[in-house]
């Protein structure tokens, strides 16, 4: 266990009332002083969205016992981290935890995920951060795997706090805790959701569309997070927010006739 | 100019009624058959957010002349691209253009940007995509730089359509067109927005908070998009949606005692 009493910020995207965040808070209490700022309603798939055209509201909540300061926020997961940093915490936290999300954030889901949005926002601010997701979408599902392995992963993450990697995306497979084969450091599987909207008609004859999609990937081999989960491992992907495709800079410099086109 | 009549999808985040998208549509018409699906209201800073808890609505619009099929959509920029792909276009487009955004999408803004969210969504689906932004936030600002250089950049991008780089983030400096020094292939500057919420009180005594922030960066040297813009260049950053920090995988594999912790 860690000596220092850590200051830990917790958020999520399933709302402050979800079972996943309650489980995460209970675990985090062992590591330090916990502050929770989380959405006041489900905010799944909000990605890195922030709220500019409306103000935010905060409401203090007694949900996690007297030692946990907790606020429900009217904004997105990223808004929650931003307002926590500016208005609630006295100093920058030592650690940010987000989740535990109900549903997978492996592969391309990381781009859409509000859970990872919150963790990434804290990481952008320089706070070591972990996003946790249980690939089981059932909000009443068994959290035994999380209960056992979240503390192990937090300990590993903190032990090497000089690591270059300050943001990790952790996904737990939906299997019995006894069947977990281990933890794998992975890369994000390259994939997409092939959209397939469901068309409906309202009573006035207007059409509306529900977003649905199918997960498509050919990149599910060893080394990917999708492969790890499928084979009974917990996946850990180090994540960055420099989206530059560095390997393409030389290529574009060479191939683009940019100089002759100017003037 | 390109021989083939291209099928081009256009979206943005400032809404279908913005001057930026009108300018982009006029330019894109020279390159092929244009379809527009864009938000019916401003959707700035929506990142890669999608809409799961409400259905989407589409409304056909005659805004860009009879040859341009255009729909206003009730969703986010990413929703617009998704519904275009599934419900409006007969086949996958050859090119997706997003913008022209009013305001900078250099540096960390790429993570929050709805403009880049739309472009990235198309790129995830395998469509070569460009996000365009004018760093001038003035919605009535001069678009002469865009008018001159957007066609040049589209031509370059299409000429090398076997390039590995299928998604670029283009920003135009806010200077007179005659003062543009050139186009620079750049990397995303590492930066953050230091949040600074404005607190207000409603007539009932309740507090609410407006998100404000200050751009902070020590990474503004040569090679960054911020440096290019500041020095009168158009910045072009190749962007990817594999967020894996690949360089950290070996490190974590070596340093984490993951095997001894299982069982």
Task: Please give a quick description of this structure.
Chain A has seven helices and 13 strands. Chain A is of the alpha/beta class and 263 residues long. At the A-B interface, helix 2, helix 3, helix 4, strand 8 and strand 11 of A face helix 2, helix 3, helix 4, strand 8 and strand 11 of B.
Tag the structure with descriptive keywords.
26% strand, two-stranded antiparallel sheet, alpha/beta, nine-stranded mixed β-sheet, homodimer, 263 residues, globular
Separate helix tally of chain A: 7
Largest sheet strand order of chain A = 3-4-2-1-5-6-7-13-8
Order of helices and strands of chain A: EHEEEHEHHEHEEEEEEHEH
The CATH homologous superfamily of chain A corresponds to Survival protein SurE-like phosphatase/nucleotidase
User: Which class do the helix and strand fractions of chain A yield?
Assistant: alpha/beta
Distance between the termini of chain A: 63 Å
How many individual β-strands of chain A?
A: 13
What is the assembly state of the chains in this entry? Answer: homodimer
Largest interface: A-B, 86 and 87 residues
Which bin fits the share of residues in helices of chain A? 25-40%
CATH topology-level name of chain A: Stationary-phase Survival Protein Sure Homolog, Chain: A
The CATH architecture of chain A comes to: 3-Layer(aba) Sandwich
Instruction: Please give the CATH class of chain A.
Output: Alpha Beta
Rg of chain A, please? 20 Å
Low-confidence stretches of chain A: none
Calculate the mean pLDDT score of chain A and round it.
Answer: 93
Q: How many separate structural domains of chain A?
A: 1
Largest sheet of chain A: 9 strands, mixed
Strand content of chain A: 25-35%
Shape of chain A: globular
